[in-house]
Amino acid sequence: LKTHLLKHTSSKDLKCGQCDYATNDKYNFKSHLLVHGTSKNLKCSDCDYVTNNKRSIKTHVLIHRVSKDLICSQCDYATNNKSHFKGHLLTHKTTKDIECEHCDYGTNCKSLFKRHLLSHKPFNDFKCAQCHYATNHNSNFKKHLLLHKLSKDFKCTKCNYATNFKFRVERHLLTHKT
């Protein structure tokens, strides 16, 4: 309860030295610091995925397992991740247990509902210091910051195109196939 109440206090004891981010939550603070990290030292042994987050690499390596322990009885979905499986099962449910009081949005997933509620907030928690971009979603903010990063992590092997988004370089490579 003490930890939860700290989230609502106005003074934020943990302050980022590289931007104006501040919080009382140690876990959120550690996650935020990864935004500024330049070296990604945890590599997947099966593909080119790299990260500097231990939880992310543990979750990622599960996708390479051949046998999937959790199999949906209503479709061909299979996974080894329990939380993903629970979320998937909710997609088969026709009634929505959680409904927004501000609009007609409904879902059965608490995390999706929390994310949706942020769309009704009058101000944005994450503001870019280099442009006018602002959002309430930390994951969107992290992706946006990659746009301003000078060094590019993904490079085309056939020309000098470079980007910080893997999907963009994959899409770009298709332009070389004629």
From TrEMBL:
GO terms assigned for molecular function: zinc ion binding
SUPFAM superfamilies: beta-beta-alpha zinc fingers
Pfam family, one: zf-C2H2
Keyword field: Metal-binding, Repeat, Zinc, Zinc-finger
InterPro entries on file: Znf_C2H2_sf (IPR036236), Znf_C2H2_type (IPR013087)
Annotated ranges, domain C2H2-type: 126-153
PROSITE patterns the UniProt entry points to: ZINC_FINGER_C2H2_2 (PS50157)
Name under which the protein is recorded: C2H2-type domain-containing protein
Lineage of origin: Eukaryota, Metazoa, Ecdysozoa, Arthropoda, Hexapoda
